Batch of 2 targets.
Target 1
Amino acid sequence: MTENLTDSDKKQLVVGIDMGTSKTAIITDTGFKGMIRSVVGYPKDIIGVKLLGKTQVFGEEALKNHSALRLYYPLEDGVIKDSGDKDYNAAYELLKYMVDKAKQGQDIDVCGVIGVPSRASHVSKELISSLANEFMKTSMVVSQAFMVAYELNKLNNCIIIDIGAGTIDICGIRGTVPQPDDQVSIPKGGDYIDDRLETAIVQQYPAVQVTPRYVRGIKEAHSFVGNIKEPIMVTLRSEGKPSTYDLTEIIKSICESIIPDIIEQMISVIMGFDPDDQEEALKNIYLTGGGSRIRGIDKEIQRLLTDYGEVRVTRVDDPEYIGCAGALRMARDMPPEYWDKVSILGK
Ligand SMILES: Nc1ncnc2c1ncn2[C@@H]1O[C@H](COP(=O)(O)OP(=O)(O)OP(=O)(O)O)[C@@H](O)[C@H]1O
Ligand SMILES: [Mg+2]
């Protein structure tokens, strides 16, 4: 006997996607996990096409071949630039590329939740939602901070501090999907630290040559705030020759330079909570994003907030994937019938 598979019987791949300024990550309910830098390159001319053998290149491969390509960072500043068609296309192609990878060659419908920067405008969210509809059967666009809270199962009286590449986003979660008033964005994420670090190294050691990529590597290996026992000694090239340099003070002061803004904005987010809830919110502060890996930053934020009573700052596990994991959890928990009504959660 042959069974006719109806549309609703057809298997679906459920995905959680986190579309960030610097990286886009995807997780599926079948265990696939993937991450790519959020950049798409198009060959500048026919030589580039010949060299690369294709008309579009994604992620690290695009960065590696940058001289032959015109690069687009579709979510630069956390939003799709509404004006440029190219940014829209790049966002479309990047997202589709990741979804295709996650399908692993299967001909299967895909549904899922897409997290976008909390500060993305409603227009940007609508744009992402409409482009996703072209290759996903059902999709819903949600703010990243909410996905993190969802994964932590902290949907009330909690504060998410997301130290990303472009910005630091601080969001109060108060039992509903966060509204623009619940969140603030500070333009001092990892890219800002990288720029300042590069400038400081060159100022202190003028003969040294560094590239932005190398500086980022130094930061990711050694970032810290507060005190550490061993000095940070790094090999740099000066006039072509390698030597070792002490970067302890430079790294410390630049990493610490983002903290006053975090504290100032934290206070305004705390004040957005009902006074009865502030005590609980202060015990539920979670740090995420790649910058949450800066050694000592959780303790330092906690220390600077001690005047406010008992404060607990917790670093999440797996900060690069937690948003994605929350998106997948939400996609699995929520019946797709409901999604049409809430295809963009949080205006
Ligand atoms: N150990 C580390 N110390 C300091 N910074 C780090 C470390 N590891 C990663 N980062 C930085 O974290 C940033 C990437 O974080 P994340 O992946 O959360 O960004 P994103 O979500 O793409 O950006 P955004 O949230 O601004 O859209 C980069 O600047 C990276 O250099
Ligand atoms: Mg992010």
Target 2
Amino acid sequence: MQVYIDHNKCIGCGRCTELCPQSFKLNENGKSQVISTEEIMCIKKASDQCPIEAIWVDE
Ligand code: SF4
């Protein structure tokens, strides 16, 4: 499984990192980055709740 974040779209709102701190973190540019793809259910939830649909899950 692959998880992609479109850094051109990410506004760094922190929603995904709050929902799944084990899977995402904000980098030094204030953009989300993937740190683990193990928690797929949480990642899907974060993808659904990202306000600008910047998280893509490819199973
Ligand atoms: S929820 Fe979306 S916009 Fe917000 S930090 Fe995560 S990827 Fe970026």
